[in-house]
Specification:
Helices cover 38% and strands 22% of the residues. The chain is built from 14 helices and 24 strands. It binds NADP nicotinamide-adenine-dinucleotide phosphate (NAP).
């Protein structure tokens, strides 16, 4: 089918072939900014999932026997094609996900960076030798591919959440199937088209869209699947963890967050405001690492709050294809209802809206999903916004008086993905970084995510790391070879 000026594939990729669903039909993909129909994609279930897994299984022996450099060349070729097609891919992403087009362009480059990083890192999958306990033995450690890796990904980063798994999984010699989120399957399918163009062999990457429960159940039921890497909500992560138990399937879980953002009294307030803007409003507040609770020292509270309110007032709310838009639509009506209920609940419990707090109209023909950047004073832990991910452009603030209080407030959460703080004191910086119970700490940095560093959480934000050299452990198994030399 065509979107404005280019044709998009909307079938599934199984064993190098484009296929529809056998019998269960298709489901619509719509533009969250307008509710306009963009495409239909296959509503697949267990049977197609089984075919995809078996295609990946069949492709594994050849793929794992290739050298790291050969695999790396293909991953790099895919990254290069993504950058060649960046305008088209960004357009598709904004169409199905709604994010501002400049952010979609940024995500394509970010997504490609995981492929090129893994292409190089695959060459450094070193084994080990260990001094043995006997004269006539040697101990070797091999790091080997696992087999078929299945990925289940969310809608908020339709491309990067796939390549963050695909790059290292393939670089380590595994083959791959992915089930993208129902709202954003087209970015995944476009990646499949480019994978074929790059020369990835049939079956090395398979893409399947459809019924999440049926697909998930088959993934966990099939013996060939040796690893599942999931990015999404903590709620679904727990369901998958239970399913993984039956077949003892290895898991990586990149789950929800509830990031604290602390501003100490010695912080560079302008830098803290800039960091808060970057962390809070990227993707319209719909990221797992978005700051969701702001704790500000009482002596700088008003200065920071006023600065943040000023910066927020300059944000342009608009449809993603508006080149100047910085805040796009929320993904769907449920997301709008959640943001509204968080704000309402906070007000009922004594908070005050300083700026924003409501839906705004961006013109005729657009859906009612554009929420104004909102600053709330008077956050406390009884409020839903003080306990749960909001996933929208709402910044709630609370004053504190001591470092210990700020750290206790920040750690008072079942989540542990990202945390941020601003200070100019080097000793405080190290002490606080160590005390925060989070997998990622932005110390004077509102945007820590990068392909070079291990990304992931603790507590109910999950386990496993994506990015950096650490990700390679997620997609390899360690084999110990005890080598008896026999008589000399
Ligand atoms: P979600 O509802 O958990 O869905 C994530 C994926 O799981 C989708 O592909 C979904 O399919 C699938 N799914 C749902 N139920 C399933 C089941 N029973 N079996 C198998 N698959 C199932 O999350 P989301 O709303 O898409 O994404 C937002 C969440 O992701 C937030 O909590 C955010 O914090 C988290 N996130 C975490 C990270 C991280 O790195 N830690 C990064 C990005 C996002 P359908 O779409 O078809 O329902």
């Amino acid at each position: 089918m065509n979107t404005n000026d280019f044709r998009i594939e909307s079938r599934n990729l199984i064993g190098g072939q484009w296929v529809g669903a056998a019998d269960s039909g298709a489901f619509p993909v719509t533009d969250p900014a307008t509710d306009r129909l963009v495409a239909h994609v296959p509503l697949c279930g267990a049977a197609e999932t089984r075919q995809a897994i078996e295609a990946a299984q069949a492709a594994w022996p050849d793929w794992r026997s290739r050298t790291a450099a050969e695999r790396g060349d293909l991953l790099r070729a895919l990254a290069d094609l993504m950058m060649r097609d960046r305008p088209r891919l960004a357009h598709l992403m904004t169409l199905e996900q709604g994010k501002p087009i400049s952010e979609s362009r940024g995500e394509i480059a970010y997504a490609a960076s995981f492929l090129s990083w893994a292409a190089e890192e695959g060459k450094r999958l070193y084994g080990e030798t260990i001094p043995a306990g006997h004269r006539d033995k040697r101990i070797l450690i091999l790091r080997q591919s696992i087999g078929v890796v299945a990925a289940i990904t969310p809608w908020n980063f339709p491309s990067a959440m796939i390549t963050r798994k695909l790059g290292p999984a393939l670089a380590c010699g595994n083959t791959f199937i992915v089930k993208p989120a129902e709202q954003t399957p087209l970015s995944a399918i476009a990646l499949g088209e480019l994978a074929l163009e790059a020369g990835l062999p049939p079956g090395v990457i398979n893409i399947i869209t459809g019924d999440p429960r049926a697909i998930g159940a088959e993934i966990f039921r099939h013996d060939a699947v040796r690893k599942v890497s999931f990015t999404g909500s903590t709620e679904v992560g727990k369901v998958l963890m239970r399913q993984a138990a039956d077949h003892v399937v290895r898991l990586s879980l990149e789950l929800g967050g509830h990031a604290p953002f602390i501003v100490f009294e010695d912080a560079d307030i302008d830098a803290a405001v800039a960091g808060a803007m970057a962390s809070k409003f990227r993707n319209t507040g719909q990221t797992c690492v978005c700051a969701n609770r702001f704790f500000v020292h009482e002596s700088v509270y008003e200065k920071f709050a006023a600065g943040l309110a000023r910066a927020m007032a300059s944000l342009r709310v608009g449809a993603g294809f508006d080149e100047n838009a910085q805040i796009g639509p929320l993904i769907d009506d449920d997301a709008v209802a959640k943001v509204q209920s968080h704000v309402r609940d906070a007000l009922d419990r004594g908070a005050k809206v300083r700026t924003g707090g409501n839906l705004v109209s961006v013109g005729a023909g657009f859906a009612n999903r554009f929420f104004s950047p909102t600053l709330i004073d008077g956050l406390n832990a009884d409020m839903r916004i003080g306990r749960e991910e909001t996933f929208g452009p709402v910044a709630p603030l609370r004053a504190f008086t001591s470092d210990d209080e700020a750290i206790a407030l920040a750690n008072d959460s079942p989540y542990g993905l990202a945390a941020y703080f601003y200070t100019r004191d080097a000793s405080r910086l190290m002490r606080v970084a160590e005390a925060l119970e989070y997998g990622i700490v932005g110390a004077n940095d509102g945007l820590p995510s990068t392909a070079q560093a291990p990304f992931g959480g603790v507590k109910q934000s999950g386990f496993g790391r994506e990015g950096g050299r650490h990700v390679m452990h997620e997609y390899t198994s360690v084999k110990y070879v005890s080598w008896g030399l026999g008589p000399a």
